[in-house]
Amino acid sequence: MASYLVTGSSRGLGLALVTRLVALPKAEVGTIIATARQDNSPGLKELVNASAGRIELVTMDVTNEASVKQATTLVEQKLHGKGLDYLINNAGVMDWSPTGLEGMDNLNEVFNVNVTASHLVTRAFLPLLRRAEKKAVINISTTLGSIAMAEVYQHMKSPAYKISKAAMNMLTVQYAQQYANDGFTFLAISPGWLRTELGSARADLPVDVGAEKVVDIVQKAGPEQNGKFFDILVPGWEKLSRARYDGEEIPW
């Protein structure tokens, strides 16, 4: 009965991840900590109220170190002395710059949310992760952050997003290397192009499909996946999009 914490749970993929997790048997998924900057998401509140106590809502601004520390204390209380098995760093933002690099005026802001915040959260929750059996940290990334695939996504005018996700990938590897001997698993997952506010209605897949496939990878994660970067597996979609859905490792 593993415990999970998902950041950015108020909408989009984060909300879909919490929805997917609570739908799984209690024998597989126990306590689910859903964090959000504000607790005013109707969809998330409805999930919490219907979860019979399995979902705990914790307010946390991932970019604010004091807020993260306060949330860590609350989560420790809600876990009743047990460790945290899975941390899913999902909170993120995306930019749009029609003129490309010349119009990129928000790199610091995007980097702070997509990279620095993931570090702040991961570092703060390391003590709770150490107490758990799984000790897994999953960073939600994207193939747009792959330097090897940069030419494929040259048309996408989101330079700050690409740069920050490439940095997040390196952050994942740095953590993976430092804590490998302590039994941790750090990995990055690209959920593909999903129909969320961030992904738009033109995206490839419904967000619930992306969430289901991400959870499939998360639940199988172990030391052998430490420091790797995967895409989700969606049968029939392997070669239908610039995004990757073959369940394989993504080149850095």
TrEMBL record:
GO cellular component: cytoplasm
Family per similarity comment: Belongs to the short-chain dehydrogenases/reductases (SDR) family.
CDD domains: carb_red_sniffer_like_SDR_c
Species of origin: Penicillium alfredii
Gene3D superfamilies named in the record: NAD(P)-binding Rossmann-like Domain
SUPFAM superfamilies: NAD(P)-binding Rossmann-fold domains
Name of this protein: Uncharacterized protein
MF terms (GO), sorted A to Z: oxidoreductase activity
InterPro entries: Fungal_SecMetab_SDRs, NAD(P)-bd_dom_sf, SDR_fam
